[in-house]
Every structure is written in C-alpha cells, then in structure tokens.
Amino acid sequence: MANERLRAALLEKGVSVTELAEAIGVDPKTVERWITKGRALSRLSGRTTTTRSV
C-alpha cells in the first residue's frame, strides 16, 4: 500500500524526494520506497519532530 499521506505532504510543501532525503539523512531511494511501497518510517521515529517543517 502506497504512502499517500507522505506523497501529498511533499507535494503540498513543494519538497522533492531528494530534498527530504538530504534533510533527514537517508538515501533518496529509501524515501521512494516509503512512498511507493508504504514502508514504515520507524527508523526515524526519534528524528521526525525536527523535520516536520520540511
């Protein structure tokens, strides 16, 4: 199941997959997997509060 909330948030904010990946310190392919395959973001649970404005 795709992660439509993440995709919508990126579009709304005008943030690219690459920009998000760089901001949170992961590979852009990882972000793509989160979006297309609905993979969990659990690895980042401790860092998400610092990236909410992205």
UniProtKB/TrEMBL annotation:
<dbReference type="Pfam" id="PF13384">
    <property type="entry name" value="HTH_23"/>
</dbReference>
<dbReference type="InterPro" id="IPR010982">
    <property type="entry name" value="Lambda_DNA-bd_dom_sf"/>
</dbReference>
<dbReference type="GO" id="GO:0003677">
    <property type="term" value="F:DNA binding"/>
</dbReference>
<feature type="domain" description="HTH cro/C1-type">
    <location>
        <begin position="6"/>
        <end position="34"/>
    </location>
</feature>
<dbReference type="InterPro" id="IPR001387">
    <property type="entry name" value="Cro/C1-type_HTH"/>
</dbReference>
<protein>
    <submittedName>
        <fullName>Homeodomain-like domain-containing protein</fullName>
    </submittedName>
</protein>
<keyword id="KW-0238">DNA-binding</keyword>
<keyword id="KW-0371">Homeobox</keyword>
